[in-house]
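Appendix B. Extra example for self-study. Work through it before the problem class; the solution is given directly after the inputs so you can check yourself.
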Amino acid sequence: GAVVSQHPSWVICKSGTSVKIECRSLDFQATTMFWYRQFPKQSLMLMATSNEGSKATYEQGVEKDKFLINHASLTLSTLTVTSAHPEDSSFYICSARAPGTIAFLNEQFFGPGTRLTVL
Amino acid sequence: KQEVTQIPAALSVPEGENLVLNCSFTDSAIYNLQWFRQDPGKGLTSLLLIQSSQREQTSGRLNASLDKSSGRSTLYIAASQPGDSATYLCAVRDVGAQKLVFGQGTRLTINP
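Solution. Structure tokens for the complete assembly:
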């Protein structure tokens, strides 16, 4: 399957600082990327859908000014958690949708996740 | 609104057994369905993708079936191994939609 990477894999920051998480599709171009948040022992919660070159579409209840998403190229999307607070501590996972070709069939691939801890 | 349910929430079986995980969805107008596994503290690994026009997909010891009309999919794992222990997630993509709708997952434990 295709590979999606995330960086960093974990980050610890002080309350009030901003943290940027990168998501890259390594062997395919992704016109659509997704950002999820996962709490312990729970399923994934979609935060936003990001299309290359346009503004992200946020799910209801997700603050777009707090979780800034940029999808500047077909292989890179970034999530910036601005003015982070302890309640933002979570596991953030990105995903990229592969092209609708015979090889990929629009399959969605996930990154390894980023563990954010805000002190 | 599409809803995806996975039963059971947790399953523990001895090594070597064949097992079936269930997934049901409320709206049959789906584009595709994916099965994933997630290990603790890790991201999701895509196991199988079934297009809406397909009935099943196979990969190694895994076989996923799809019955769109009844809103059901099953993931069959043959000759289970301790390394199969993980949480298995089912997700559907509706026709015309961008996002996947996930079930809550089945936490599988294979006992040596």
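Self-check: The longest strand of chain B covers residues 30-38. If your reasoning did not lead you there, revisit section 3.
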